[in-house]
Amino acid sequence: MSTGFAPSRALLLACTAPASAFFAAFWLLPVAHLVALPAGQGWSTYLAVLTHARYLQSLLQTLGLSLAVTLATLLLGALVGVTLARQQFRGRQLLLALLTLPLSFPGVIVGFFLILIAGRQGVVADLTDVLGLGRVTFAYGLAGLFLAYLYFSLPRAIASYTAAAGAMDAQLEEAARSLGASRWRVARDVWLPELAPTTLACGAIVFATAMGAFGTAFTLSARFEVLPITIYNEFTNYANFALAASLSIALGLITWLVLQLARRFSGTAPV
Topology versus the membrane, per the UniProt entry (predicted)? Predict the structure, then answer.
């Protein structure tokens, strides 16, 4: 005999009504308006990111930069995270705290940091000027964006890999070594499969974050335009809201697709 409290349907509706209203007002309606907006200038506006050379170039540059940042972040994050998880030494927690400190920095501050290092008045420019090489700067192009995105994303990867490697079953590695497996064989047969879910999840998040990053790109993208800056220019400088909405839809669909594929292949979504 059940003695638990069984709420009525009216009570359940009353409890979910505020959340439903908030969801409809601040997500459903804006997204519906965003999707419908390009239709006012013709259905071809939805494909502008593929049919217009400037927007296609911006998309491809964003994709290339995001992929490069994701691969570099996963490689460096895995190496540092696994090392921190396996090695115990004095100051380890302090080092981990320092490595993950940039998690608290917004993108604008990360961009400002890079300008202080590699901008026109930065440390690199002062050093190369003293050496007689002129004032070398690389903060405002592809190299600057890559380093800034990497700096912004790497702490997340380090934290994820450190936690995942620390939770691994050490007996698997011991068993492989007892069977005569070399270090590379252990890494291939034990470490890679165990860390694969973390790699997929972390890689998808890093990619999605890089695709949609605005603060860092706004600070540094004087010579290299990415899609978030293109969207910003369209609705701010040219008041072309339909085209900005179309580019936003393309950006959102790509990042959503990557996140869904990561969930599916990591086993967190139904096949």
Answer: Multi-pass membrane protein
Q: Is residue 148 part of a domain?
A: yes
User: Helices marked H in 37-106 — which ranges?
Assistant: 48-51, 53-86, 92-99
CATH number at residue 124: 1.10.3720.10
What's the domain count of the chain?
A: 1
Residue 80, domain extent: 63-266
What pTM did the predictor assign?
Answer: 0.85
pLDDT tens digit sequence for 26-56: 888 888 988 998 988 888 899 999 999 999 9
Between CA 127 and CA 253 the distance in angstroms is 44
Cα–Cα distance for residue pair 158/84, rounded to 1 Å = 9
Q: Distance (Å, rounded) from C-alpha 240 to C-alpha 231?
A: 9
Among candidates 248, 230, 258, 213, which has minimal Cα distance to 33? Answer: 248
Residue 26 placed within a domain: no
**55 falls within a domain:** no
Across 196-215, b (16+ Cβ under 10 Å) vs e yields eebbbbbbbbbbbbbbbbbb
